[in-house]
Amino acid sequence: MSIKRVTSFDVAKKAGVSRSVVSAVLNGTPGIGVGAEKREAVLKAIQELNYQVDAQARGMKTGKSYCIAAFGDMRSPLFLQVLEGIQHACAEYGYHVLLSGNQNLALSQLTDLYLQRRIDGIISHDSVNYSDDGWVGELSASPLPFVSIEGYAEESEIVSILVDYSRSVREALDYVNRRSDVLPIYVQFQEESVKDNWAERDRREAYLQWCTDNKIQPSCNLVHLDDEQGVKQLLQSLTKSEGSTKLPVLLCNWSIGAVSIYRQAHRLGFHIGTDLLVMCADHTLRNQMHMIPSLSVMDIPYVRMGEMAVHAIFEQIQHDDVEIKANKLWVNAQLIPGESA
Amino acid sequence: MSIKRVTSFDVAKKAGVSRSVVSAVLNGTPGIGVGAEKREAVLKAIQELNYQVDAQARGMKTGKSYCIAAFGDMRSPLFLQVLEGIQHACAEYGYHVLLSGNQNLALSQLTDLYLQRRIDGIISHDSVNYSDDGWVGELSASPLPFVSIEGYAEESEIVSILVDYSRSVREALDYVNRRSDVLPIYVQFQEESVKDNWAERDRREAYLQWCTDNKIQPSCNLVHLDDEQGVKQLLQSLTKSEGSTKLPVLLCNWSIGAVSIYRQAHRLGFHIGTDLLVMCADHTLRNQMHMIPSLSVMDIPYVRMGEMAVHAIFEQIQHDDVEIKANKLWVNAQLIPGESA
DNA sequence: ATGAAAGCGCTAACAA
DNA sequence: TTGTTAGCGCTTTCAT
Q1: Going by C-beta distance under 8 Å and a sequence separation of 6 or more, which residues neighbour residue B152?
Q2: Picking from A207-221, A312-326, B228-242, which range would have the lowest pLDDT averaged per residue?
Q3: What is the pLDDT averaged over residues B306-318?
Q4: Which strand C nucleotides have any atom less than 7 A from protein CB atoms?
Q5: What is the percent of chain B with per-residue pLDDT over 90, rounded to a whole number?
Q6: Strand D contacted by A19 CB (< 7 A)
Q7: Which residues of B touch A103 (CB under 8 A)?
Q8: pLDDT at A238
Q9: Residues A128 and A197 sit within 8 Å (Cβ to Cβ)
Q10: Quick one: three-class SS letters along B131-148?
Q11: Residues B12-36: pLDDT tens digits?
Q12: Omega before B248 within 30 of 0, i.e. cis
């Protein structure tokens, strides 16, 4: 037998009231008034006994667990930022966060978690092109609130927090364009596993549109992430057109691409920041300060996206009456200037 | 009223047995034999009804929650690695992870969490010099299993997972020393907020001892992290002694220090990897691949440390009989070679 | 080997 | 306004 737990009964006894009064004081149950002195007595007893409600017992009654599950790729540092936001926002609601890395846990198993733990909601950090029809189906069959971060962009049923990538590109371009005579060149790095998706399209098209608006001849380059030769050739092509007085600026979609560019520039003897500017439209690698010279990037506010997801979850929890509303929440990347552009 | 839950009663009814049999099948309760056919029937009913035990109800009976809490700095990418290990190992035990960032939650509040949620254990990711006497006291008063990662090194009561920093330095030195005629120079970066601690001492002393063993004149340098001048002077001092045929190797305690070194080397026109080698005795920044040239580092296996912490927790849970045992578990850093050394 | 029954601590409907 | 009571779903004696 373990140590005796302090229960609401003990509190009630000490305060000279019944357990329901204790419960009412704790939960502020509407429709039940509690006299001021009684309330004081209860509060005092709680203090003195160091009473804490048993979340499991409470959950048993209410059918809730006061927990939300966070699901994402445990190897991606971005997920930690998301978690930070989730944790922070949940704390405000008195909720806790149950971690569900997607290494060994498939999304479908989350349904079981829901059944076992009575999770009150799920926040999933997905890749930008992610969408799972099966999951959408399961979800619509259950009353479990769900919010995706970065995923399900084209699935209007699902609430998701999305980044306005078009805008991030425009802001980046406006930033580099503050210097006169720059020639922005877009570099879209690609990876086998990541197919073209709306985010890449948005960025590319924002670049093209911006060039049109600013009467600049666009140059859009697709390069595979491992393709060192490709980057090298791109850099060399810049030298050829050196006749132009314009300062070339490489704007790349992923900050990991900057590593390749720096590497080749280093080999070719180009000085980034003077011969050539570099700017990244995202900051996935979080290497802004680690690059030399430091990188100018558009930082994506993952922490805030985590917080927003929590608020969106609670909106679903509270208004379970079906309202017509936009299920997509958009956030903006923020410029972090560095020495590279 | 929400959707009716499938309970063990439903399963029992469908299988034509009583609830206790269902429970016995589920938990393999010792001392209770269940006939083969009955067992089959129960299993089949569970399948068909898609029954899942209610963790809260179970927890209520057993006094456990099948959850462990993970506590750490949500802004440090290292913590995510730890979480990955924790999550992974917990899954094997059928446990879940409750996240407790230390942003808004003080360690003392964890006690409340324990009372509320009946947490079965706590894993805390601490800084290397961390130790909180008050917490040690609270802990000894409660039966709550606790394991610290990187903290409480000098607190023999507490179980902690620690890194053998001496060894990481020796391995790094042996690695650079494979080339003939290198001159290893130790650089200890310092930060206001981080005082000298056992880990720094271990590294420094391992360096000095190694130099003695290898009959090399040691050079141990303390530099403040922001002290660009200091790094610059250090690099310049290397040129002066250029008369020596030895290739200087800077071994630094933190991989963040490499950024400063690269930056100054870049300014002074030194080529890292040829004029000068650089090696880091840890990999806190996780910038191995992002540096140009790529960095040689000793990587600390935080994922595994997380897993080990979970195993240590379960050892405490299972053997609650007090055994005499070593409370400190040591792990080794692993060499990741790069181009810098 | 199996079933009946007693709670775990809480909340909410109801009775006073 | 306050106290009584009936479960929530499970595990675990204790009888059978």
Answers
A1: B126, B130, B131, B136, B158, B160
A2: A312-326
A3: 94
A4: 1-5, 7-13
A5: 72
A6: yes
A7: 84, 87-88
A8: 85
A9: yes
A10: CCHHHHHHHHHCCCCEEE
A11: 888 888 888 899 888 877 666 677 7
A12: no
pTM: 0.94
C1 C1' to B289 CA distance, Å: 64
Report the interhelical angle of B36-49 vs B19-27 (nearest 10°).
90
Angstrom distance, B23 CA to D11 C1'? 7
**pLDDT value at residue A31:** 60
Phi then psi dihedrals of residue A192, to 5 deg: -45, -50
The beta-carbon neighbor of B290 closest among A70, A266, A290 is A290
Q: Where are the alpha helices (DSSP H) in B241-320?
A: 255-268, 302-318
**Nearest residue, CB atoms, A259 vs list B113, B285, B290:** B290
User: Which residues, including other chains, have CB under 8 Å from residue A194's CB and lie 6 or more apart?
Assistant: A127, A129
B169: left (phi over 0), alpha (psi -120 to 50) or beta: alpha
- Distance, in Å, from the CA atom of A33 to the CA atom of A18, rounded to the nearest integer, reads 14
User: In this predicted model, what pLDDT tens digit does every residue of A249-275 receive, in sequence order?
Assistant: 999 999 999 999 999 999 999 999 999
Tell me, in Å, how far CA of A61 is from C1' of D6? 12
Residues within 8 A of A (CB atoms), B 220-239 only: none
Q: How confident is residue A4, by pLDDT bands cut at 50, 70 and 90?
A: confident
Angstroms from A318 CA to nearest CA on chain B: 15
Bridge partner list, B159: B147
**CB-based contact B105 A91, cutoff 8 Å:** yes
Quick check: B54 CB within 7 A of strand D? yes
- Cα–Cα distance list, A88 to A56, A307, B116 (Å): 22, 7, 19
Any residues with CB less than 8 A from the CB of B258 and at least 6 apart, and which?
A: B252, B278, B280, B285, B287, B291, B295, B340
B181: pLDDT strictly greater than 80: yes
Q: Which pLDDT value is given to residue A1?
A: 44
Contacts of A52 in chain B (CB under 8 A): 112, 115-116
Q: Which of 81-120 (B) contact A at CB < 8 A? A: 83-84, 87-88, 91, 96-101, 103-105, 112-113, 115-118
CB of B308 nearer than 7 A to strand D: no
CA A287/CA B292 separation, integer angstroms:
12
pLDDT in tens, A84-128: 999 999 999 989 999 987 766 677 788 888 889 999 999 999 999
